[in-house]
Amino acid sequence: MILLGKYRYMYYPGCTLKGWAKDLETSTLKVCEILGIDLIELDRWYCCGGVFELSDNLMRHLGAVRSLIKAEEKSKEIGTGDLVTICSMCYNVLGRISFQLKKEDIEKINFFMDDEKDYSGKIRVKHFLEVLKEYGFNKIRNYVDEQMGIKVAPYYGCTLLRPEEIGIDDSQKPRIMEELLEAIGMDPVSFPMQTVCCGSYNSARGIKAVETLRKKILESAKREGAELIVTSCPLCKYNLKEAMYFTELMEMALGGARHG
Fold first, then answer.
1. What are the pLDDT digits (tens) for 133-163?
2. pLDDT attached to residue 154
3. What range does the domain containing 198 cover?
4. Contact 52, 125 (CB under 8 A)
5. Which residues pair with 135 in a beta bridge?
6. How many Cβ atoms are within 10 Å of 172's Cβ, its own excluded?
7. Considering 108, 130, 152, which residue would you say is the last residue of a domain?
8. Which of 79, 107, 130, 228 has a CA that sits 20 to 30 A from residue 222's CA?
9. Strand pairing of 151-154 and 124-127?
C-alpha cells in the first residue's frame, strides 16, 4: 500500500499533455517536485472526449467514466478520492460528468460496463489550481526568492469557471489565479475579456473568427498594461499564441533550474 502524504493526489493527465502540450505537464511536475506535492498518475486512463457533449446518450461519456472507475480503484490503494487534472478541458469534461452521474445515471451507465467494476460516484475531480490553493498561497510564497513584478494577465477562458456547479471560482470575477500570481512575485492584471471563450475548436473550421477573437482578447489584456498572459488550457494557448502556461511561470519563479 502506498503511504499517504499530506499532499498526495491521483493524477489524470489526458491525451494532450502526452502530446503537443508536454510543457504543461513537465512544468507542473517540476513545480510539484519543488513544493513536495505528489501527483500519482492513474495506472490506466482514457481520453476524456475533449469536450462535454450535452446529450442524453450516456454512451458518449463511457471513456471518461472508465477513467473515473480506474480512479476509484486507485483511491483504495493510496487512500484519497481526489483526482487532479491540469488541462482545463479535461477538468471541465471529467468534472461535469462526475457531477452529472447522480444515482439514476450511475445505474444506467454501469449497465454498459462489461469488464469494469461499477462506478459509485465517490471521486472528487479537482483542478491543479485548487490543489495549490489548498496547499496555501502563503506557503508557496516562501519558495520565491525574487519579486519579479512582471505584469501578468491570467486568462481563465470558459472551462474552469462554467458551468457554475463545477467552476473553481466566481464565474464573473475570479481571483484564484491572481492570488497565485501575487504569491509568486508577479503583478497580476485583471482584464475585461479574461473569462471569454477563446473560440475553442472553431480554430479547426472558423479560423478567421477565432483570429478576430484572439486579437480582441490580447488587446484587452494589453490595454490594462499586461506584459504576459498565462493560461491552464492547451487549446487556449494554441488559439492565443502569445501565452504561456501558469505552471511554466511558476517553475521560473520558484527557481526550477536551481532545484533541478
1. 999 999 999 999 888 999 999 999 999 999 9
2. 98
3. 137-259
4. no
5. none
6. 8
7. 130
8. 130
9. unpaired
pLDDT score of 45 more than 70: yes
Residues 153 and 197 in one domain: yes
Q: Any idea what the CATH number is for the domain that residue 203 is in?
A: 3.40.50
pTM of the model: 0.94
What does each C-alpha distance from 236 to 21, 173, 194, 214 come to in angstroms?
11, 19, 11, 9
Residue 1 lies in a domain: no
Say which residues have a Cβ less than 8 Å from residue 125's Cβ, sequence separation at least 6.
83, 85, 91, 94, 95, 98, 166
Of the three residues 111, 130, 149, the one that is the final residue of a domain is: 130
**Do 183 and 240 have their domain in common?**
yes
Cell of 14: 489526458
Distance in angstroms between the alpha carbons of the first and the last residue of the chain? 29
- Tell me if 130 sits within 8 A of 198, measured CB to CB: no
At 161-196, the pLDDT tens digits run 999 999 999 999 999 999 999 999 999 999 999 999
35 pLDDT band (50/70/90 cuts)? Answer: very high
Asked if residue 221 lies in contact with residue 194, where contact means CB atoms within 8 angstroms, the answer is yes
Half-sphere exposure of 225 (CA within 13 A, CB side): 7
C-alpha to C-alpha distances, 240 to 52, 80, 92, 164, 225, nearest whole angstrom: 22, 36, 19, 24, 17
Dihedral pair phi/psi, residue 59, rounded to 5°: -60, -25
Is the Cβ–Cβ distance between 35 and 255 less than 8 Å? no
- Count Cα neighbours of 235 within 13 Å in the Cβ-side half-sphere: 22
In a domain, 3, yes or no: no
